[in-house]
């Protein structure tokens, strides 16, 4: 049977994601999987029991389209407690099937055919396809290396009369960098001058290190009215397979996001929503994530000290970038495959986060793993 598409593909350049490829390769070659961003430790037993309890109480039918009211209320209180953000829970929060759906629903609501969307690279791989599927034109702006910072003058230079949206990500996947207060001020100046919208991917809001404070667009007075922030319970509570997240936006934008959301998934897993609503009532369940993952980052960096990999120290997320310039100039994808197949540790090549596959010889490793996994992986890498 022919495998050729019977009609023109909307995403002809898109194949199987690198995360799936490298995880399968790790499995095939019995390598330690530090590639795909999922923890290898259990989620809270209390949270699991809450899901079971709410199933037993009969909360197994459709949830309200925008989300279970108890969860919307819990999110509103959490945003106030953690970031001092005031949110209208009924009109500004939408529960989605993971952050990826929130991103897509937002882009589908805002972007019309011919609109330009500024995308900072390296970029999480869901952004550009969503823009293209909705008829938009991605305008790609590279970060400055080796620190992976954003040149806001360069961003402003790329704005035209067709620019509708800019997508930012902090803490940033794949680089582990964060946006500072000055970054948001520069962005606010651009938004005020050109009247564009901001989509801010903030799924790692609770995983930020060294005493730094998460800079959300929702806190900035110059950005609040034209910004959409996206969050993920899967990242916060180590339950990536649950695929549950949410968006926060002004009421006028939220109405449009919900129009798209109701025809993508309509509503999201009901008992998990109730469980999360209860779990969020105790702030200790999410406030310790920064310390927990910083300990893992520091442990992994310590274990890697005798290697010749050069770190770009992560400031957030559970990802750590390393330059492998001391090991030669082979392409990063080839290097990642060699490490997996021949050495026994899987990583992600950073070139896949660029549309033109820019290769600066960096690899991304996930340190959201058990210490035993990190120690074993680092020991292997240090022997190269």
* Secondary structure: number of strands: 13
CATH superfamily of the largest domain: Type I PLP-dependent aspartate aminotransferase-like (Major domain)
Quickly count the domains. Answer: 2
How large a portion of the residues is in β-strands, by DSSP E?
A: 5-15%
- CATH class categorisation of the largest domain: Alpha Beta
Overall pLDDT metric? 95
Spatial order of the strands in the main sheet?
2-8-7-6-5-3-4
Structural class: alpha/beta
Return Rg in Å: 21 Å
Count of helix runs = 15
Overall morphology:
globular
Largest sheet: 7 strands, mixed
How are helices and strands ordered from N to C? HEHHHEHEHEHEHEEHEHHHHEEHEEEH
The span between the termini is: 45 Å
Which stretches are poorly predicted, pLDDT < 50 over at least 5 residues? none
Q: What's the architecture of the largest domain, going by CATH?
A: 3-Layer(aba) Sandwich
- Give the proportion of residues in helices: 25-40%
CATH-defined topology of the largest domain: Aspartate Aminotransferase, domain 2
